[in-house]
Amino acid sequence: MMAKFNQNNTNKTLNPDGFPAYRMNLKEELVTAVLTSMFGEPKFYGSTDNDIVRLATECASAAPEFLCKLACYARNEANLRSVSHVLTCVIAREAHEFTRTTVRNVVVRPDDITEIFACYKQMYGKPFPNALKRETAQVLQRFDEYQLAKYNGGHRSVTFRDVLRITHPTPKDSSTEALFGKILSDTLATPYTWETELSARGNTRAVWNELIASGKVGYMALLRNLRNIVKCGANLAPVLDALSDPERVKTSRQLPFRFYSAYLTLSSEGLMTDEIHRALEKALTASVENMEPIPGRTLIAIDVSGSMMTAVSRKSILRCADIAALLGAMASRLCEDATVCYFDSPNRWSLFNQKGYQVRHYGKYDSILEICRASVFSGGGTEMDLPMQFALEEDPSRSVRPFDRVIYFSDNVCNQSWGGLRKTVQGMADRYRRQYNRNFWVHGVDLMGYGTQQFCGKGFNLIAGWSESVLPFILLAEKGIGSLVAAIEAYSAPSLSPDQ
C-alpha cells in the first residue's frame, strides 16, 4: 500500500549556486521570471530570457488564458514592455485564440506594434500568424498621424510601412485610408516632439522652455531629461510640479527606480537641490500613500550580496540591490513598526559586523530617497538565514513584541547557511513560529526570477516585481484574499468592453 501521509517531498531542488531550495510550479516560476525581466539584459546568474520563452510555451499549452492575462498584466500593471511583447509572440504562435485580447491590451503605444513584429521575426522568423496580422490591422487604426509619425521607427528593422504591407488592413474610413497612404509613401508630417526640436534647434534653455510650455513633453521624458533641463537652466518650476503631481505619477507607468535613478544622477553631478529632492520624494510617496497600512512589527530583509550588484540594464546605473533597498524603504513607509535588516554573509570582505548583517530603524516619515542613499551595499554571499537569525536572537528575554512578518527583497539564491547546515531557511521560520509567534508570515519578493525559493507552505507568500504594486499583496495574503498568481488569474484586461 502506498504511503498516505509520510510522502516524499518532491518540491526540493537546487538553486543556481547548488544550494538546497524549493522549486516553483509553472505559473509561479513564469510570473517571477516575467515580472523581474528587462528582456535581453544580463543577470548575475545568466539571462532568464530562454527560460521565459520555454515556460511561456509550456503555459500556452497548459494554461493559455493565464498566459494571456500575464502578458496584459505585465504591460499594464507592472509596466514592462519588452517581456510583454515576447509573451504576445508566444501566444500568437502557440495559443492563437487569445491573440485578440492580448494584442488589444499589450499595444498601449504605437511602437508596441512594430516591436511585437520585430520580436516575432527574431524569435520565429516568417510567416507571421494570421491572428496576429488580423488583430494588428484593427489596433493600428486606433492611432492618429501624430502618434504614428512620432513612433514610426526611422531606420529600424520594422516600420509602420512594413506592418501595413504585412497586415493589409481595411481602413475604417476615408481619413484612415489617407493616413495609410501617407505611411506607405513615407509622407507623414514631422511631429512636434522634444526629440525633433532638440535635434533641429539644440539642447538650449530657450528650446526647453518652449517645449515645457507646449505641454508636448510627456511625464517619462521630463523625468529622464531632468538632468538636461537643470543643466541648461530652463524653467524648472512647471517640471517639478508635473513630476510631483500624484495623479500624473499614477498614470505615468514609471517604475519607482526611475525616480531614484534621477536622484542619484543629479546628486552625483552636484545638481540636486532641495526643491528637486522634495519633488522626487513626493512622487515616490504618492505611489504608496493610499495603500493600506501594514500593522504590527515587520522585519524588512534587504539582500545586498554580490549577486544583487548586477545593473538593471546595460545603460542603467541602478543595481538590483538598489531596487531592493528602494522597495524596502517604500514598504517601511507603510509599516506601523519596521526594522530593516541589510544582509550578505559574515566574511572578511563584508562591510557589516561579524554576523553579516546591519539593522536599522526608520521613522514612518523618513525620506525614502535618503534611506536608499544611506544603504550599505556589501557584496558578499547570500546568507538568507541571517534576518531570521537576528529575529530569533533579537532579545532572549523577549521584552520586545515578536515580529508579525518578515519581508525579503532578494534574488532568493541562498548560497550560505547558518552553522554550515545545507538546508533551506524554511526551518528557521518554523522555529520562530514555534517559539514566538505562531501566526508569523514570510513574504518573499523575488527580484530576479531564477525559479527557486527558500520557503514554502502555509504562511509563505511569493511575490515578484520591481513596482510598488507588489506591496498590497502582503496584506492580501495575510487576510487570505489571494496571492499574486491568483490576482493574475482573476485579472480583467483594462479599458476593453465586450464588443470591442
Fill in the keyword field for this structure.
disordered C terminus; 6-stranded mixed β-sheet; disordered N terminus; 24 helices; about 500 residues; 3-stranded antiparallel β-sheet; alpha/beta; Rossmann fold; 3 domains
Short characterization:
The chain is of the alpha/beta class. The chain has helices at 26-34, 49-62, 64-76, 82-94, 99-106, 110-124, 130-139, 145-150, 160-167, 174-185, 194-201, 205-214, 219-224, 226-231, 237-244, 246-251, 256-268, 274-286, 320-334, 368-373, 386-393, 426-435, 472-478, 484-489, and strands at 12-14, 20-23, 294-303, 335-343, 357-361, 405-410, 441-446, 452-453, 460-464.
The CATH architecture assignment of the largest domain turns out to be 3-Layer(aba) Sandwich
How many helices? The count is 24
Q: Look at the structure and give the mean pLDDT.
A: 86
In terms of DSSP E residues, the strand content is 5-15%
* Total discrete domains: 3
User: What is the CATH third-level topology name of the largest domain?
Assistant: Rossmann fold
Give the number of DSSP strands: 9
Bulk shape: globular
* Secondary structure: helix percent: 40-55%
List low-pLDDT spans: 1-9, 495-500
First and last CA, distance: 56 Å
CATH class bucket of the largest domain:
Alpha Beta
CATH superfamily of the largest domain: von Willebrand factor, type A domain
What would you say this structure looks like, in words?
The chain has 500 residues and is of the alpha/beta class. It is built from 24 helices and nine strands. The protein has a six-stranded mixed sheet with strand order 5-4-3-6-7-9, with helices on both faces. β6, α22 and β7 (441-446) form a beta-alpha-beta unit. Residues 1-9 and 495-500 have low confidence and may be disordered.
